Amino acid sequence: MTDTLAPPGPLADPAARAREHRSWYFYDWANSAFVTTTATVLFGPYLTAVAETAACGEAGTPQDPCHADLSVLGVPIAAGSVAAYAVTAATLLSALLLPLVGALADRTSRKRHMLAGFAWTGAAAAASMFFVTGANWALGVGLLVVASVCLGSSLVVYDAVLVQIAHEDERDRVSSRGWAFGYLGGGILLAANLALVTLEPFGLERADTVRVSLLSAGVWWALWTFVPFRGLRDRPVTAAVPVDGGHGPAGLARQAFSQLTTTLRHARGYPQTLLFLVAYLLYNDGVQTVVYAASIYGNRELGLAEDVLIVAILMVQFIAFGGALLFGRLAERFGSKVMVLFSLVVWTFVVSCGYFLPTGEIVPFLALAVGIGVVLGGSQALSRSLFSLLVPRGNEAEYFSLYQAAERGTSWFGTLAFGVAYQLTDSYRSAILVLIVFFVAGFALLARVDLRRGIMAAGNELPTVLRGRVSS
């Protein structure tokens, strides 16, 4: 791939456009290995065990957890809440950095280079989790923060590229296929790690197999990022207004910050876009916290072994692959907003059932995993394509930076509520029940979004389903 810029917008040739779509899908394939193996399944319980070792001298068990506190700058922190608070810290930092990343991305024609740079930095941090051992929980927290912030930064650019490579009528399909591809890639690596953690080959102990799995997720993320880096086309900046700030990296940063300030000031001119963002912040916090908390909940509250948790998440991965494709098809008939609203009803039901799961029973937990898999990919993929229609032209990355503040692994209201609820009640059941509030509130706000008015105000074309004709 050369550095020659492609014309603005999706490529005119259908075959060339499809090839670029396929290259774009591979970043979902690349980063999903970290999201599943590390962020969703293994690192939460592993970091909790490391924190418990630091607090109690040895890791607790689901039947006899460690209840001692760690001291962080003189503040007592429950060892069982360290992982949740680490995710919260990463998201708070993201809230400060991602909008600036978005402003920078909108002002550069080298988006694929930004995407790859953030991805490879995050992958290096993810692979370095191999070195988190003993009681060194602080190293684990630091690496999780770096990897999470880099993931969010790369996804700001990645999501903005969707607008450049796909027409309005293509975005539900392209976004859904990207998510489906990601679940498939993440599932394949997770299956390999399932075998590793379960069989413990070559004389490795369980902690060693977990660390090797964490390393594999970082390496996978780094290597597969080369596909979108080589296959995507850079395009010229289309609508970033020049701002006086000087030249060079420092000048570009000043210009980006000034442009971001202007964009946020003018954002009130797009009330439907802002209303969707608030709704998404709420319900996606619920989704991401359920995904994050599932392994801790199953391990610490239900007493299930790590290999059972990996099987459950593996089931979710492959079921979500089909669920994302199914929701993409249904969105062509009923519209993405209707399908996202439907998914929130199912999410509320899933969390309610999770509260009543019996301790030590594997089958009910796996049945609940099936329900999660059906709606997980669809709700996320369609939210992304739905938001892309509400983003003002030329400011895609800036708006997607706000969107990414609530995206995979960076929800903070949910993880904060979950961590506080556990610290106050000493029960993960009470903590997970709190998440219903996020789904109900998100549903209520999303139902009020006027899509037709919001899309037209943003200067985008109405997709066929909103023009009153169902696409074939």
From TrEMBL:
Coiled-coil regions listed in the entry: none
InterPro entries with a match to the protein in the record: Atg22-like (IPR024671), ATG22/LtaA_families (IPR050495), MFS_dom (IPR020846), MFS_trans_sf (IPR036259)
Membrane topology: Multi-pass membrane protein
GO cellular component, one term: plasma membrane
Pfam families reported in the protein's UniProt record: ATG22
GO MF annotation: an example: transmembrane transporter activity
Residue spans crossing the bilayer: 77-101, 113-131, 137-158, 179-197, 209-227, 274-296, 308-327, 339-357, 363-382, 402-422, 428-447
Entry-linked PROSITE patterns: MFS (PS50850)
Alphabetical keyword list: Membrane, Transmembrane, Transmembrane helix, Transport
Compartments where located: Cell membrane
Residue span, Major facilitator superfamily (MFS) profile domain: 272-472
Protein name per its UniProtKB record: UMF1 family MFS transporter
UniProt source species: Haloactinopolyspora alba
